[in-house]
């Protein structure tokens, strides 16, 4: 199975708002499989289709220590959220950059699984952070956009310098 190339911030394609999946067929299941493989290989704890330049509402997440709790969420919707937590976040689209972001402590998310069955996940802590981080990607938002303009400018400069070195 192919690994998918991941878009890097500030690629304007990361700003695309993803469209709902209309029909969960083999092409969607293949996309989810390829995204999961790409996430595990990276390694990361989540990946949104937006990051692999597919603008459909599909997310894969595995925030378990054992890397055996894959969640595939299609058309996820935030049903409830409460509390506040601050977590140091990173993003596969913003390599080498980590900073604190404020998020809800607990969320309830409704979604369709790869069989098209309605599911609900209630999460707190890191899984709740990851769900919010991935749902942001589907709205065209990257975590650094929660930071100050000054930090965003510095991050763009640092990433531009990195890509000159690695080019
Ligand atoms: O791998 C990832 N780690 C992470 C750590 C803290 C908060 C969020 C994340 S998600 C990130 C993978 C990614 O970029 N998903 O979009
Ligand atoms: Ni990310």
TrEMBL record:
Catalytic activity: N-terminal N-formyl-L-methionyl-[peptide] + H2O = N-terminal L-methionyl-[peptide] + formate
A single GO molecular function term of this UniProt record: metal ion binding
Keywords recorded for this protein, A-Z: Hydrolase, Iron, Metal-binding, Protein biosynthesis
Cofactor(s) this protein cannot do without: Fe(2+)
Example GO biological process: translation
Domain of life: Bacteria
Positions bound to Fe cation: 91, 133, 137
Gene3D superfamilies, sorted: Peptide deformylase
EC number(s) recorded for this UniProt protein: 3.5.1.88
Residues forming the catalytic site: 134
UniProt key word Protein biosynthesis: yes
Cofactor note: Binds 1 Fe(2+) ion.
The protein's role, per its UniProt record: Removes the formyl group from the N-terminal Met of newly synthesized proteins. Requires at least a dipeptide for an efficient rate of reaction. N-terminal L-methionine is a prerequisite for activity but the enzyme has broad specificity at other positions.
Membership in a protein family: Belongs to the polypeptide deformylase family.
HAMAP family in the cross-refs: Pep_deformylase
Name of the protein in question: Peptide deformylase
